[in-house]
Amino acid sequence: LSSSGAEIPGNRLWPAVLIDHWFALFCDVSRPVRGLPEGPTRRSLQWLAACRRGDLNPPLPGPIVDKHPNEGQNRTHEPTTIGISALRSALHDASMKLTPGELYFAGEEDPLDGRLTPLVKIGIVREREGRTSEDRLAEHQTGNPRRLQLLRVLPSLAIDRVETLLHTEFAPRRIGGEWFHLPSDDLTVVMDHAAIHIDEAATNGPTLEAAQRLEATRSNGQVLTPDTATLELHRRLLVVRKHLSMAKEAEKLLEAALLEAREDAADEYPYVTEQFRAPRHTFDKDAFTAAHPRLAARYTIERDTLNRRFRLSGLQSHVLDVLEDNPALGRHLADIRESVNDGNAASMLHRQFLGLLALRGPLDWEKELLEASLQAACQEYEKIAGVCTWTRTPVTTLALDTTTLKAERPDLHTRFLQEGLGTRAVSISRHLGYRLPESSH
Fold it and tell me: Could you tell me where the beta strands, DSSP code E, fall in 221-315?
């Protein structure tokens, strides 16, 4: 970094002091520059610092990019739309196996004074559905007594993944469903985070497409020697994978504690959701083959597949200090262990669960991008020495073609259907249970 600025891919210049602060707060100084947001402000850096210190639910900063200079409560956000075709052009016409569509932010007006309330819906429409965000807003309006307003629309070629990331990253402010409590400038911050993630997905689009294409390519059994950039990707992925492993263990600990607390709860318990899944019908292949061996032989076909397995080298032996590498995660994990051991109230445990989701979401996203980068670097090779192994071995198996059997002999197919058992799925609620965050009370 020079004293005047740092050159970033894409011919963008960033003030060196901001780059230095950003790396110190959110990255490792040796980590490759990737996906930095434009115009980080002092308040954004202060918010990141609060996260790194381990604050469970720090107040969001003002806008990362001050696109809305009017700070009044009555301000409105003009819908912003960029064409999907423009994004495809930016990706050099890469054929991505992702879901194109639009991410939209919808707000509601207070019927007393017409001002926007802090409640905002973050949803998507997929391009293949043949409808727009405006159409979706009209559908929501039917069931809402308050007038809805489309605040912003952002297109993306990875719309499902970006929506999931935002819902997880801001779980501590998720009221229920797709509705979030985002007063004042908090909304602008979330919008800017959405734009950053969309830009990151577009920037990494060719890499993701290459990795997906290589999944269908047989590995050649040869070993590739890694270059410096590949070794750096490997080092960072080891750290991210370790952090995710720790987060998942803490998540299991909180789940067990919340489920145990439910047993003693006399009143409404909003922290656990329970779903009953209806029994599924499956075709009994063994019984059919025993009863009709000739027909089974007739409908048996060969299926050619690739057995794929991606393994990261050095994961078991890699040792790190989570408090040093990711202070926010390290402190939060320590707080979770203390809360569980002390038998804290379910409300506190659930807030910590949502805080853990917020920390884990960006890690999951980074893991996917890093793994795609390593897979693209691996190409058709079976191994990058000391980095990873990606076997893609062709396998031919014999299988009963139940689809053709059902089409040609529906009565016979129905005769060998068997009903399974219904299942009960219990999970921890990933939102506030239609309650406001404590900081808003």
Answer: 223-224, 272-277, 281-283, 300-312
CA dihedral of residues 261, 263, 269, 270 (deg, nearest 10): 70
Q: Which of 122, 102, 117, 123 is nearest to 147 (CA)?
A: 117
Helix (H, G, I), strand (E, B) or coil at 266: coil
pLDDT < 70 positions in the chain: 1-97, 439-441
User: Which amino acid, 296?
Assistant: A
The confidence score (pLDDT) of residue 362 equals 95
Distance in angstroms (rounded) separating the CA atoms of residues 149 and 134: 9
CB atoms within 10 A of CB 60: 23
Q: How many CB atoms lie within 10 A of CB 85?
A: 10
Nearest to 289 by CA among 297, 281, 279: 297
Position 420 scores a pLDDT of 87
Residue 388, pLDDT score:
98
Tokens found for residue 318: 């890699």
Do residues 178 and 123 lie in contact, with contact meaning Cβ atoms separated by under 8 Å?
yes
The whole-angstrom separation of Cα 52 and Cα 324 is: 10
**Contact of 32 with 203, CB cutoff 8 Å:** no
pLDDT of residue 410: 96
Other beta carbons within 10 angstroms of residue 220's beta carbon come to 12
Q: Please state, in angstroms and rounded to a whole number, the distance separating the CA atoms of residues 344 and 61.
A: 29
Q: What is the pLDDT of residues 296-326, one digit of tens each?
A: 999 999 999 999 999 999 998 988 899 999 9
pTM across the whole model? 0.75
The candidate with the shortest Cα–Cα distance to 168, out of 438, 354, 427, 436, is: 354
Q: What is the dihedral of CA 170, 172, 177, 179, to 10 degrees?
A: -70
- Whole-angstrom CA distances from 354 to 51, 123, 161, 268 are 14, 19, 19, 19
User: At how many degrees (to 10) do helices 327-342 and 42-53 cross?
Assistant: 40
What integer pLDDT is reported at residue 167 of this predicted model?
A: 97
3-state secondary structure of 308: strand
Here the tokens at position 359 are 């920390």
- Indicate the SS3 state at residue 157: coil
CA atoms within 13 A on the CB side of 155: 14
